[in-house]
Amino acid sequence: MVQGKDTVTESIELNSDKKKPASKLAAVLGIFLVLAILASAVLGTMLYDKNNRLIELEGAHSRLNDEYRQLNAELEKTQSDLDFYKSELSRAESSAAEAAKAHEEEVNSLNESIKALESRISEMQMIIDQHVAVPALAGNGAAHKCYLTFDDGPSDNTYKILDILKENQVKATFFVVGTSKLEYIKRIHEEGHAIGLHSDTHSYAAIYSSEEAFFNDLNSLAGKVEQIIGFRPDIIRFPGGSSNTISRKYQNGIMSKLTNSVTQMGLRYFDWNVDSGDAASNSVPARVIINNIKSGVSGKGDICILMHDSGSKRTTVEALPAIIDYLKSLGYIFDVLSQNSGVFQHNVLN
Length: 350
Known about the structure:
The protein is α/β, with parallel strands linked by helices. 60% of the residues lie in helices and 10% in strands. Strands 1, 2, 3, 6, 7 and 8 form a six-stranded parallel beta sheet that branches. The protein is elongated.
């Protein structure tokens, strides 16, 4: 009996061992199934999101296409407007050019007429001068003196002026500034003309800010001149003349102080009593300069004529021969300014 019981027990254990592998397989398959279901769910979700994103992109693309078409339409309209305005501008420019050309032709015609009239007036003036010119004589019968003066040089015009003066055997006075052509004063001095000091910088703002500033500038120029000709000139001309009022902008009363100071230092300052008017611009016509001097000398005895020697005063050079001829016809004797010359000084206004 005992032996039979053991046999049954062994048979049960054997069956139990055979069932264990099957259970494990089922469990594994179950896990794979769950994973497959999860993977399917995740993949479905991803596909759903991707599909939604694709729909969104298609919508955005459609909107961009709409905006592009709208902008393109606006661009075409703007281009059309621009072409229209360009066309209008071109027509306007063409009309303006035609009007300007017509105006220029009219101006040229008027200028030619003016030149013809001026030429005729000049001829008549010469005829009048030849018949009514009165010798410039002092009360004792001696001829009056004429002092030709040139400010703001030396320049490229200086040698031209010197050539004219030499040809006409006339002397003049040059009130010089510290230009790059300052070495030209050597010839001025050697040919017997007088040299006076004007200003090293000719800057009103600098030289009229104080007495010290003025004399610093003047001494600087005097030193440069001395190096070239061997001495310091003792005659000067204030920039703008002693009567200038622009100096008041930089210091009130400065000209009254300076005129007293230079006199106490033994310097003579000279203004003028005939103005050529060549300082009015860089291109004052020669005929105007000549007529200004003719008008200016009328009724005067000794005369001191203001002219300029800066590089832009080409018409002054052009006018000079006729000026000399006219003054000679009046009997004037040409001389240079010095400490012994007569007084040519304005009323000080500052």
